[in-house]
Amino acid sequence: MSLLSFSPLRTRHFKESIKFIHECRLRGEGCLVHCLAGVSRSVTLVIAYIMTVTDFGWEDALHTVRAGRSCANPNLGFQRQLQEFEKHEVHEYRQWLKEEYGESPLRDAEEARNILGKYKEQGRTEAPPSAWRESSFQALPPLAYSKYPTET
């Protein structure tokens, strides 16, 4: 079974994004991951990457992202995708990354643990996402949608 065939509709962009981010980092380059508001879609891809290069589950990876971007808040659908990724696919992705690139010279797990530890020490973790999922709402920046032409 290929990694993309397990649930192509849910995580079809994860492998391509993880590969791109990882290759940039291995070359010592920066990598900008963005979407319209930088709150949900791009955050989801970064969380999937963190889950792949560490042993973090989706909630710890989310808190790690929130340490640097407090508005990070994947929508309910993306949260479910991350849960499915954690439950069914992340182990295969970790193995694929190791086979494709060998042992990483990056200290991702150590750095992520330090970031997460500091985040938790500051008491910045909220109730588990399951407690606020249905009621959470992040506003878009003013006029965000009007700045882009719409095409159908």
From TrEMBL:
One of its GO terms (molecular function) is protein serine/threonine phosphatase activity. PROSITE patterns: TYR_PHOSPHATASE_2, TYR_PHOSPHATASE_DUAL. Pfam families: DSPc. It comes from the Eukaryota. Residues 1-91 form the Tyrosine-protein phosphatase domain. GO terms for cellular component: cytosol; plasma membrane. Gene3D superfamilies: Protein tyrosine phosphatase superfamily. InterPro entries: Dual-sp_phosphatase_cat-dom, Prot-tyrosine_phosphatase-like, Tyr_Pase_dom, TYR_PHOSPHATASE_DUAL_dom. It is found in: Cytoplasm. One of its GO terms (biological process) is signal transduction. Residues 12-69 form the Tyrosine specific protein phosphatases domain. It catalyses: O-phospho-L-seryl-[protein] + H2O = L-seryl-[protein] + phosphate; O-phospho-L-threonyl-[protein] + H2O = L-threonyl-[protein] + phosphate; O-phospho-L-tyrosyl-[protein] + H2O = L-tyrosyl-[protein] + phosphate. Keywords: Cytoplasm, Hydrolase, Protein phosphatase. PANTHER family: DUAL SPECIFICITY PROTEIN PHOSPHATASE 22 (PTHR45948:SF3), DUAL SPECIFICITY PROTEIN PHOSPHATASE DDB_G0269404-RELATED (PTHR45948). Belongs to the protein-tyrosine phosphatase family. Non-receptor class dual specificity subfamily. This is Dual specificity phosphatase 22. It comes from Myotis myotis.
